[in-house]
Request: fold
Amino acid sequence: MQDKLDEITAQTRNLVQPERLELSERAIAELFASGIEEKLLKPGDTAPSFALPDTNGRTVSSTDLLALGPLVVCFFRGRWCPYCVTELEGWRDLFPALRERGALLVAISPQTVRQNDFTVTQHTLQFPLLRDEAGAVATQFGAGYAVPAYMQGYYRSILVNIPFINGEPSWRLPVAATFVIGRNGVIQWSQGHADFRVRPEPTEVLKLLEQ
Reply:
């Protein structure tokens, strides 16, 4: 999957003005320096339980899902992010293999239920997309952060209205992070990146679930 993400990065560098790229680089560097990657929950930690609405407005409970099998939790920023969409489509393509291993998958974003519904329909996703208002659950997993003011201005300048997309004004997003939770509620594997251009590889998760 990373090859596809690198293609997006290369195209972006050809199309976006250097001063705009510098803002993104600054934000990534500051987020990395904050230590957020080290704050992510690690294998052996107990995963926070959650109950969040899906695209039909029904509440999906992690406790109920874990009663059925291991659970993969993928945090993503929103449908406005091409890297996120590429990651979701990667999981879509591998979802049958994931189910063959007895595992379940949910993708969690701060965007509204309606935005999640658009995402499911547009990209023909077979797994639930859940709405995490203001990134509350992402923060419990160590993945939530607040977008700095200069990046808020940048997003507004490219017509990415995150408060509208998320349905609330906090400007909180998750870093790209994936967690595998065992049926006992303990995290078996986790990986996340301050750089939104880098994502955990779904194939690594599949290898883990084969064990």
User: Anything to note?
Assistant: The radius of gyration is 16 Å. Residues 2-210 form a domain with the Glutaredoxin fold (CATH 3.40.30.10). The first strand starts at residue 51 and ends at 53. Residues 76 and 137 are 12 Å apart (CA to CA).
